[in-house]
Write a structure and sequence with these properties.
alpha/beta; Glutaredoxin; 2 domains; SCO family protein; Thioredoxin-like_sf; SCO1/SenC
């Protein structure tokens, strides 16, 4: 009798372990099959359902008005129903910018025939990166203006976007002004609702591949 009870308990224990294991596996799969949301500079991930009420007031990229390499106005409307990847650079940068631009070119080629994915590069020296300078740089780097906007505008607008909305700098807690130069290698992934869904090292090949994979994951939401 005791042996029979032990067998029953063993079976129940095995079932319980299996159920817990399956649930953990499901949780893991659900997180891998979606991207988190981000709302501040520490980039703490928030795992939210697409229909979560939290998203109604969650951090978004604010409206802006800038000018691209063709002298065209670029606003949030330019990216309506688009996923986009953004960075901050300047045309005379001798350091990380050439590698960042090369990796943006990889992204351009990867998604060239996908109209729902765009690229946006902000100049952090807008006082020297005029429309004509950006145009010359774009032509030199093989930028497709239908896919990739290089933008200039008011320095305050660009720096405010970079620091307070895209959170591209990693100096947490350090107060900066427009006079403090903004220089970062980060790429940021933005979804069709203007939410931040990822940040990546723009000079790292592995990070760029992860970004490509994440864009494809994000596409499945739409």
């Amino acid at each position: 009798m005791k042996l029979s009870n032990m067998k029953k308990y063993s079976v129940l224990l095995l079932i319980l372990i299996t159920l817990i294991s399956c649930k953990n596996k499901e949780d893991k799969i659900s997180k891998m099959a979606a991207l988190p949301y981000y709302s501040e500079a520490s980039f703490t991930p928030h795992w939210l359902a697409l229909d979560s009420e939290v998203l109604q007031t969650f951090h978004k990229i604010k409206d802006f008005s800038l000018t691209n390499q063709n002298g065209e106005t670029v606003t949030q409307k330019t990216f309506n129903d688009k996923i986009y990847i953004t960075d901050f650079f300047f045309t005379t940068c001798p350091g990380i910018c050439p590698k960042m631009t090369a990796n943006m070119s990889i992204l351009q080629d990867e998604f060239l025939n996908n109209d729902s994915i765009m690229l946006l590069s902000h100049s952090v020296t807008p006082e020297t990166d005029s429309v004509s300078v950006l145009k010359q740089y774009a032509d030199k780097k093989g930028v497709n203006s239908d896919k990739w906007h290089l933008v200039t505008g008011e320095r305050k607008t660009i720096y405010d976007l970079g620091r307070h909305f895209y959170f591209v700098e990693e100096d947490l807690g350090e107060m900066k002004t427009d006079d403090d130069f903004l220089h970062t290698e980060n790429f940021v992934l933005i979804d069709t609702n203007k939410h931040i869904r990822g940040i990546y090292n723009g000079v790292n090949a592995t990070a760029i591949q992860q970004l490509i994979d994440d864009v494809k994951t994000l596409k499945l939401e739409n």
